[in-house]
Amino acid sequence: MALLKRSRPKPERDSEGRMPLMDHLRELRNRLLIALAAVAVGVMLGWIVSGPVWEVLKEPYCSTTQSHQLTGECSLTYNGIFSSFFITLKISLMVGLVLASPVWLYQIWAFVTPALYRAEKRYTMTFLGLAVPLFAVGAALSYLIMDTALGFLLGFSLEGTVATIAIDQYLDYVLIMLLIFGVSFELPLLLVFLNLIGVLPHATVAKHRRLVIFLMFVFGAVVTPGGDPITMMALAAPMIVLFAAAELFMYLREKRQPASEFDHLSDDEASPLGPDLADKTLEEDSGTAR
């Protein structure tokens, strides 16, 4: 008589998303493979459209008068036999990351979300929905002012000299500008997030408001590749506006919350014990003494 093999019951998934370490590693591996596959498909599509994308990226440089001094038309140089291949590959990778962003962002979200509480999930989805448009607005602003910044920087060339800018150097400049402006527009959103989780109260932000505004100007002067005043102002001014909006949100949010009986105490002053808590503490002390 043949023995009937009983199928092993499938382990139920933990309600809080907990699983053994090896299962976490397998899930991470699978999600990384999916994300890399999506990026690879995006890179292949980016290779196809790399020509039109390059025409858009070089437009700020071609808008300057210095770009036509070498041959009478907009021209950039490159050195090496394989340079053009790697430049096209870099453009394709950039396009691929943008096209595949919904996939790899979802994979990050799906991997992290089991460890979050319901309120944290809601905050994360809200902030993700705001972070993408803010990054896009910052990158668009950098693209719009890039021709003015380039014209200002190239305007310092000496008489009788012609600027020969390599394609890879110009492309690095464009990518850095897009990333700096995009990420900088996320900083006020980070302040709001810290306020929501109780780490950064509005009183602290209001106390250091002047210092924060000054540091924004310093940040704009330091992180921009050219360091010109036009780019600095174009970066610092919107950041100040967004900072003011974030501070207003903190103020209105904390104003709606009920006041605590310990709000009048300073950060270094201990709060008094209530009657119930004091009685409980005395009972514990007497029990320990016995």
TrEMBL record:
Keywords, sorted A to Z: Cell membrane, Membrane, Protein transport, Translocation, Transmembrane, Transmembrane helix, Transport
UniProt entry tagged with the keyword Methyltransferase: no
Cross-referenced Pfam families: TatC
Compartment list: Cell membrane; Membrane
Transmembrane segments: 32-50, 85-106, 127-153, 173-199, 211-227, 233-252
Coiled-coil annotated residue ranges, if any: none
Summary of the function given for this chain in its UniProt record: Part of the twin-arginine translocation (Tat) system that transports large folded proteins containing a characteristic twin-arginine motif in their signal peptide across membranes. Together with TatB, TatC is part of a receptor directly interacting with Tat signal peptides.
Entry similarity comment: Belongs to the TatC family.
Self-association and partners: The Tat system comprises two distinct complexes: a TatABC complex, containing multiple copies of TatA, TatB and TatC subunits, and a separate TatA complex, containing only TatA subunits. Substrates initially bind to the TatABC complex, which probably triggers association of the separate TatA complex to form the active translocon.
Name of the protein in question: Sec-independent protein translocase protein TatC
Organism listed in the record: Nonomuraea corallina
Name of encoding gene: tatC
